[in-house]
Amino acid sequence: MSIKGLTGLLIAAAIMSFAPASFAADDVASIARGGRLYDKWFKVIGAPKPAETHPAWPSSNTAKKGNTTHRCKSCHGWDMMGKDGAYASGSYKTGIPGLKQMAGKSNDKVIAALKDSTHGFGGKMSEQDFTDLANFVTKGQIDIDAVIERKSKKAQGDSAAGGRYYQTVCAGCHGETGLEPKDMPPLGKLANKNPWEIIQKTLNGQPDEPMPAMRAFDLQVSVDILSYLQTLPKE
Ligand code: HEC
Ligand code: HEC
Questions:
Q1: Which of 24, 101, 169, 228 could form a disulfide with 159 if both were Cys (CB 3.0 to 4.6 A apart)?
Q2: Are residues 128 and 35 located together in one domain of the fold?
Q3: What is the rounded CA–CA span in Å between residue 157 and residue 44?
Q4: Which ligand lies nearest to the CA atom of residue 34 in the structure?
Q5: Model confidence over 144-171: pLDDT tens digits?
């Protein structure tokens, strides 16, 4: 075979071996978008804020009402553990179970649940939205208690490494000490108060904001960032 022919063959082989990687990239983007939908789907898709309290929101909880009761995270938790996680108590206590058991299950099961009479989301989101949500629930879950110590809320990361990531990736928008933009609480405060929320925002991005999602990188990168955020000023 000529050198040219061989080069052509090698290029073809290289393209073929890259193909699965590009599918994986589609998947990770879908999972991250699913994570933002899980956070606040109506903001992501630009739908009007639901006005009424969600019918599945229990009447025992009078602390919350209106649009926040339509967010997946409000019923199932940032840690995906529902009544067995951080929302076992506090203003989001509902008694609703988490979604850990759905990791590794088929997307169809999740999509069927979203369209059932409990949720009533059928027709409120597109099929792509349902697919992204299902990818997040079935393929995007992390072992949360392995990365955030539940009692102390301490992230199990390397804050020095996290500082290098933060100062190069995040500081341009959030400032060197996490006090920007001005209309949100300091990142140091949020990261210590609700680390389960902050790891999800770091992995998936912020709904309808041009903020990066770190999910394509190793999970440890986001855990290291969270550890660093926990060292930043709280006010
Ligand atoms: C107002 C509260 C509420 C909201 C908001 C909510 N859910 Fe649920 N979800 C429930 C309840 C209640 C169940 C039924 C749990 C049971 O079986 O007792 C449930 C069940 C599920 C199940 C099935 C779990 C299983 O083990 O079969 C999935 C999947 C699910 N929810 C995903 C979501 C997603 C994704 C969102 C956001 C788009 C969402 N839920 C929003 C209350 C809610
Ligand atoms: C391109 C600008 C940009 C970059 C880069 C960026 N963010 Fe953000 N981020 C935002 C904006 C805008 C908001 C929403 C601010 C608001 O709600 O007022 C936000 C919100 C957040 C929130 C949610 C705060 C809340 O109130 O719930 C967290 C957590 C966060 N960012 C962490 C990070 C981390 C960690 C990085 C780096 C990995 C990062 N951001 C990089 C723009 C950015």
A1: 228
A2: yes
A3: 30
A4: 1
A5: 999 999 999 999 999 999 999 999 999 9
The protein residue with its alpha carbon nearest to ligand 2, atom 17, reads 184
Nearest in space to 230 (alpha carbons), one of 76, 222, 172, 88: 222
- Name the β-bridge partners of 97: 82
| SS3 per residue for 28-50 | HHHHHHHHHHHHHHHHHCCCCCC
Q: What are the percentages of helix, strand and coil residues in the chain, rounded to 5?
A: 55, 0, 45
Question: Which of 38, 59, 64, 75 gets mutated to test ligand 1 (max ligand atoms within 8 A of its CB)?
Answer: 75
Last residue of a domain, one of 141, 170, 190: 141
Considering the domain architecture, whether residues 30 and 134 belong to the same structural domain is answered as yes
Helices 195-204 and 3-44: crossing angle, nearest 10°? 140
Q: What is the mean pLDDT of residues 54-60?
A: 98
165 shares a domain with 106: no
Are 49 and 89 within one domain? yes
**Digit-coded pLDDT (tens) for 88-105:** 999 999 999 999 999 999
- 112, 141, 170 — which closes off a domain? 141
Alpha helices in the chain (DSSP H): 3-44, 72-76, 107-114, 127-139, 144-147, 159-165, 171-174, 187-193, 195-204, 219-229
Q: Are residues 110 and 170 in the same domain?
A: no
Kindly state whether residue 8 falls inside one of the protein's structural domains: no
Q: What pTM was estimated for this model as a whole?
A: 0.92
Q: What is the extent of the structural domain holding 130?
A: 25-141
